[in-house]
Amino acid sequence: MKKTARFSIILVLAFLWQHCTDDPAPARPGTIRFALRPTVAASQGRMATSLPDGASLYVSIRREGGDDVYTLEPVRLLKLGEEYISEPLALPGGNYELTDFLVADAAGDAVYAAPKEASELAPWVDDPLPLAFTVSNNGIAQVDVEVLPTDVYQPAQFGYVTFTVEVMLVPRFRLAVFRAGDSSAEFARVYAYLLSEGDTLLQDYLPAAINDIEFSGSLAATYTLVLMKESYKTYMRTFVLADLLAELNGTPLQVTLEDALTFTASSRSPYFGFTMQTGRETTPFVIHWGDGTEEVLPPTTSGGETYLPQHTYAQPGQYHVSVAGDLAAVEYLSFTDTQSDRYSLRALPGLRSFSMANTTGADSVDLSHNPVLESLDVAYSDIRYFDIRNNPLIRWMSLEGNADFPVPVLDQIILDIHDHAFEQQIFNGEINLSAGPGQGIIGPPSPYPMDRLGHMGELSWTIYQ
């Protein structure tokens, strides 16, 4: 007769964000909570049993056919009558597999374990690990896990190398960072700083998973957490560690990143500045300048507004800058006469004019998310690589002064702008391909693209070369 303890695990996905608008809300991460009701097989049926005082659950979960999300993650248990309720775990919607399942006492010694497939004890349970389950945005998934006591068996008989689990007596805090995916929230890899009184306690990339943020410091001290990722608003939070731990109550700190205009500013003069113009009323914009300084730009209250944000850095360096807010209203953006790099224009779907004239640093720019772009100026810049296949409305472009522009890239740009102009019937456009005063055309283009340039005259385009 099998002597097993069966745990029914109810995976409850609860939305933590509420919106009061008619617009469809972006996918947000949920939380999963385990509900356990332990019973032991007996000759006359199943009888309720109890877990040791201070018992915790340790689980490993991975994406179906993919990477690990949790690895022997400690999950605290609270007894409610004959049932045990776990602390919530952050997990986006998707398909997953439960790969490890241990119940340990307060000392970290495993008292129950779920056998794995192909192990000696696998035949003792109906469904050994791994167990597949699906988490949906608005649903409940149920997984039944059978466990066996570990007191008379060895880990290898369950399919484990060891039952040893790490008991963290004073865990700092855990962090889960998400970004909106196509249909649900996804874990995001970020660059993180943890600062305290001018000292940098943490400075590293964090993987797309639940991360333990551990550092030596006082519970009463004040810390600042900074999270940065290209295309997303910089996240900053200042907290007293004891207060944060009390607030989280064992759950991870959950951060959902917000879309933003991002770039790297190189401080080589007293200040760094750029120009941004909107075409309608907006909410305020928030700029994180990359040195811990946050600036709020006032909202646009009329048909449009021109912003000239400038910032002075204390010392030269490379600074990750993010601009968040009503970015769909931004129609004009210029970094003329700056030293900057790593532009992400993904959050600017309404951008009509973009200038990087006389800039140094960046050799490429991604314009694939700017479908209404009409004007592009990269004259006398380091830009050598860009693609306008997704920019069918361009009617003005300057590559003047870029004498060493790669010919294959130039050829494709000419063919694309030619095809777009005829497909969209765009008249009176301009292209400046001059290498400089008296220096002829950049490239020069291959014969067929040069022939296409000649055809542009049919639409009254002006070609400077």
UniProtKB/TrEMBL annotation:
Lineage, uppermost ranks: Bacteria, Pseudomonadati, Bacteroidota, Cytophagia, Cytophagales
Name of the protein in its database record: PKD domain-containing protein
InterPro entries linked: Ig-like_fold, PKD_dom_sf
Source species of the chain: Dawidia soli
